[in-house]
Amino acid sequence: MRVERLSRDKIRFFLSLDDLMERGIEKEDMWRDIPKVHELFNDMMDQAYRELGFEISGPVAVEVFALPAQGMVVVVTRGRTPHPADLDELEGDDMYELEVTLEESDQVVFQFHDFEDLVQAAVSVRHLLGAGGRVYAYRDRYFLVLDTDMELNTLQQGIAVLTEFGEPSTMTEHVLAEYGKTIWNEDAIGRIIHYFS
Q: Which helix (H) or strand (E) covers residue 77, if one does?
């Protein structure tokens, strides 16, 4: 489980499939008001406090984005800090109120530290995933965005191969397109192989 600060009142967690499996949590469980989900959220908040000094009380908005064959991204946004008199009424597990929304992504995004890693990844997954995809450069990294309209087993094999060269990213294509530089907006894997291998 990785956590990063997005702003003063917003943090983002990346939960891998292993993180969820260790706790016996399925994607659908994130909607349910069950003890293991509360325990996961408490663990997340403990980690956010230890690593980032991020503390919550009062209302909290939680956005859950399911990433195909990778896990989940959870964005936690702090609401207003309650008045000290209101804190007297809140006890234990009631120290925060959750508002949860769940979205499922139909894309896989991988980041690569250098261009050569991206080239090697493209060569290795071409036979599995075809010539598609889009590539962006952002913050000294390269990002490969793939649509997931393929058989789940093929997608999982492709992700396993990509993981040898890069790592899954919580970055959305909207952010990459707006703030990054578009290298290829279609057929990225095919073009990388055509020009660089």
A: strand 71-78
Say if residue 189 is exposed, middle or buried (CB neighbours under 10 Å; 0-12, 13-18, 19+): buried
pLDDT in tens, 36-64: 888 898 899 999 999 999 988 778 888 88
Q: How many CB atoms lie within 10 A of CB 40?
A: 23
Q: Token pair 């894309």 is at which residue?
A: 107
Q: Which residues contact 52 (CB under 8 A, 6 or more apart)?
A: 3, 5, 11
Domains of the chain in sequence order: 2-104 (no CATH), 107-196 (3.30.70.1950)
For 133, the token pair is 């995809």
CA 153 → CA 5, 69, 150, distances in Å? 33, 9, 9
